[in-house]
TrEMBL record:
It comes from the Bacteria. SUPFAM superfamilies: Flavoproteins (SSF52218). GO terms for biological process: heme biosynthetic process. InterPro entries: Flavodoxin_dom (IPR026816), Flavoprotein-like_sf (IPR029039), Protoporphyrinogen_IX_DH (IPR052200). GO terms for molecular function: FMN binding; menaquinone-dependent protoporphyrinogen oxidase activity. This is Flavodoxin. It comes from Pseudobutyrivibrio xylanivorans. Residues 5-89 form the Flavodoxin domain.
């Protein structure tokens, strides 16, 4: 099975840490949607979209990348890091209404956050993603490819 993870990680590189853990453990390909806007994804069986959460949404460039490049009838999954550690994936699926895809999983963990007033108190989620988060993410990915 050929897989790729498309990511955007602009605040503290939290999401990139999660993606990199999966890349180094599982040998999956990854691409940064901040620097790459176009890619032919037709040869991939499983496509992940990974993002920090900004104002309750995936990064706009991840959404744009998916709108522009995701072929129909692919298996897709989501990885997100956020202050609230919640499943924010509806914010991307609702932007892909014209496409056909099968969501096979979503992973969320806390990410260090110093946005706005949180900076004044040293931020939230300090140290996250931590080793346990990274291990959980790798297990999550392995579970998708069994
Ligand atoms: C501009 C901005 C807005 C954010 N909005 C939210 C939010 O709505 N909900 C949340 O749980 N976390 C929010 N966060 C925290 C980030 O989602 C969290 O720090 C995430 O791990 C950042 O990922 P990154 O380092 O990969 O960019 C926000 C952070 C920033 C900088």
């Amino acid at each position: 099975m050929k897989s790729i993870i498309v990511y955007a990680s602009t605040h503290h590189g939290n999401t990139k840490k999660v993606v990199d853990a999966i890349v180094s453990e599982c040998g999956v390909e990854s691409v940064d949607a901040i620097s790459v806007q176009e890619k032919d994804l037709s040869e991939y069986d499983l496509i992940g979209f990974a993002s920090g959460i900004y104002a309750a949404k995936f990064h706009p460039q991840i959404i744009k990348f998916a709108q522009d490049n995701l072929p129909d009838n692919k298996k897709i999954f989501f990885i997100m890091t956020s202050a609230m550690d919640k499943d924010f994936s509806k914010s991307i699926t609702s932007s892909l209404k014209d496409k056909k895809f099968d969501v096979v999983g979503a992973f969320s963990c806390k990410g260090y956050n110093t946005f706005g007033p949180f900076k004044l108190v040293g931020g939230t989620g300090k140290g996250h993603p931590d080793e346990k988060d990274l291990k959980n993410a790798v297990e999550f990915y392995k579970g998708l490819t069994l």
